[in-house]
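Format notes (please read before filing issues)

Several people have asked whether sequences and structure tokens are stored in separate files. They are not. Every record keeps both together, in the order shown below: the sequence lines, then the token lines. Line labels are part of the format and must not be stripped during preprocessing.
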Amino acid sequence: MFQIGDIISYLEMCSAEGVNLQRGMNFRLGKNYSVILMSVRPNAPYADRIEENGRVLIYEGHDIPPPKKWPCS
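Then the structure lines:
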């Protein structure tokens, strides 16, 4: 079984859940829970975080394309 803080591979996660996990949020995997792929480590590419003793999840839109950079006129 995995422990908090473990770093595991994508294949290990999929095997443990019995499905191919999509990036981001995986709702109701046929069970009574969802899986959210995110990182709260200091070097994470998104500012995801957990607040209020685990009751609130702040999750940035990982699937939203970055804003277009328009060339200067």
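For reference, the curators noted about this record: The helical segments are 10-17. The radius of gyration is 16 Å.
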